[in-house]
Input
Amino acid sequence: MLNKSIQEALNKQVKMEAQSSQAYLAMASWAEIQPGLEGVSNFFYQQSDEERMHMLKLVKYINERGGHAVVPALEQPIISFVSIKILFEEYLHHELAVSNSINELVHTALSEKDYATHSFLQWYVTEQIEEEKVARTLNDKLELIGDDRSGLYLFDRDIMNFRSEEKSPQ
Ligand code: FEO
Output
């Protein structure tokens, strides 16, 4: 059975993941109406689905442990961006905030001696290492490309299948 503070902390993370899904959906939608950013749009639609999966995993866990997963109200995410560079900086910024939030949650689980939750959260710790890596890699690529239009064209083409390649077995 989950104690009250763990349940609250896990429900806070449910909101964080739901908010991430919304934020990336807004990024996908913005990119979709820009000329030539089909790959970027596709990437963020996939990211949005991933975040929903992260949220659902938490919802199931809370309920399985005798708690009540609360479906949260969400804030309006950022819906338009000055540039693709700003969009990707926002993405990295968001992932860093999620990592901090997971770390806090792990800390809470340990201090409350909830070892089952601590063990459950290890999946998120590993996932965040990957998520941060992806976000940093893409920001680094954009930094290199600068304002080179043919570079941006290739970036958009390569990112089209970035996630599926990233997640495919070795
Ligand atoms: Fe669910 Fe990208 O953190």
